[in-house]
Structures are given as C-alpha cells and as structure tokens.
Write a structure and sequence with these properties.
It is a single chain. By secondary structure, the protein is α/β, with parallel strands linked by helices. The protein folds into two domains: 97 residues, Nucleotidyltransferase, domain 5 (2-Layer Sandwich); 178 residues, ATPase, nucleotide binding domain (Nucleotidyltransferase, domain 5, 2-Layer Sandwich), CATH 3.30.420.40. It contains twelve helices and ten strands. A hairpin with a 2-residue loop joins strand 2 and strand 3. Helix 2 runs parallel beside helix 3. The two termini are 17 Å apart. The relative contact order is 0.15.
Length: 307
Amino acid sequence: MAFYLGMDAGGSRTRVAVSEDGRELARAEGESVKTLRIAEGDAEALRVAEERLGALLEELGSKAGVDLRYVERSSVGLSGASVPAVREFVDRVLSRRVGGTVEIVGDQVIALDAAFPGGDGILVIAGTGSNVGGRFGDTLFGAGGWGPMLGDEGSGYWIGHEALRAATKARDRGENPLVLREVMRVWNAESIGDLIAVAHRPGISFSALSEVVVACADRGDAVAIDVLRRAGEELAAQVGVVCGKMRSAGFAAPVCGVAYTGSVLGKIYRVRESFNAAVLRQIRGARFVEQEVDAVVGALWRAAHRK
C-alpha cells in the first residue's frame, strides 16, 4: 500500500488529490496561491498562501481518510516553478504537512503527463494566459507564456483585449459593433471617454470580457467572430513553433499528439474549430486528444512513476 499526492497550483485555482496504488481516493480544490506575489516577497501573500495550502491539505486528508504524513511521494505542478522563492515556499509548506519526498515542476509538465504519460506530445495551455509546451524524450520545448504585456496570444486576456481593440478600430470606420456596445454596458461606460478611462484602470480584467465576446459572436457580431477565429490561429501558430523545435531535435514520429487544457479551448467552440483547422494545415499527422487534460491526474502519475 502506497499513497501519492498530486497538486496543480495554477494561476487561478489550486487542486490537489491523493491516490493509493494508482486509485484516486479524494481531491480538494481552492483558490490560487498567487505565486507571482510570493515571488515578489509579499509577506501578506505568503501568509495567505500558507493558510490556503494548509486548509486544502487538511480537507484532502479528511476526505480521503488518510494521514498525509504517510504519503510516499508528492508531485507538484506549479505556475512560477522557475522562481526559487516560489519553489522553496511550496516545498516548505508541503514538507511540514505531508510525508515523503516532494517534486516540484512546471504546471506544463504535469499536464503533459496527464495527456501523454511519460511520452512525447504537445500541450496547449489556454486560459487567462497561454503557452504551448512539447516534450520529446526528456527534453521540453516551449513557445509563448510571455504574459499579457508581451504575448499570451489566444488567451482569455488576449480575446478580451483584442476584441476591444478591433471594436474601436471598427468604430473609427463608422461602424457600431455589438461587442463594443456590450463591453460599454458591462463596464457601465456611458461614453467613449468612460470606456477609455475604465480600460486604463490598473488591474482591469480583460480576460473577463472573453465571455462577452463569445456571447456577441453567438449573436452574429462580425468583430467578435473574427477575434475568436484569430485566437485559434494564434494558438495553432505556437503549436507549429514547438513542433518545429521537436522535429529539429530528432522527433520523427508520423503522428504528433496535441492536447489542451484551459477554458479557451475547452469551452469556446469557435476557437477550438479554428485551432484544429489551423494545426492540421501546419502539421501533417497531428492527432488531437479530444478531452481536456486533467493536470492533477498527471501529477499523480508522476508521483507514482517518477523516482
């Protein structure tokens, strides 16, 4: 009898599960640990994150009926895993509450293992942000992941921001697109001046506008439809970059698996259709994993199989 713990600490949620000899016993889910604020050394963020992780682990142990001190190995997929302060924080919190050894990797790695356990393939992460990762043998390849100011094309943030940019250009041409009117309604902007002021507020959530864009596309708004099409093509372009890197490194399999996680490809069918079509134009032999990847499953797999 061996217990393993897997955790997916992403940018918006933290999910954790425990398994016994390959069988998942229970899982728990809570708020993000805000790794960017931890990396900045924010004392309050550290305190809150430790409280959240501690409560989540306590809930998990209670649900599973397992004393987590008997866990043999843990694997954590972490947004911000490349930052030493973030890794040290998570390792410290887990080591106080969970037994065994702790492995900390990027959230991309556990998602790859959920889709292709220990194998080769390409994974697209498209939620609030976006990036693409591929694995060939023991080597990881990536594209994107530069954050909203430098990239994140095809992400929820990009969709909201790009739709507003496209809508304002349409207005300059004398048009009055539905998506512009709907954003103004959601933001309680009574004038274009109000719209500009809200758009430039610190911390404004453009990713939240992605739902507005989808709703407008469903009502036939040409600007919204075009933005969602381009979002799929932007994500596919990053897949092409990663596949090219893998081919250059010697990947020669006739079939290349492509999987995804995140709400953009998981929930927005227009983006998914555009993405699939664009990938097939670039990569002969692409094979899509149709179901969204559950990264926690990949973390549990790594905990049990990666020594």
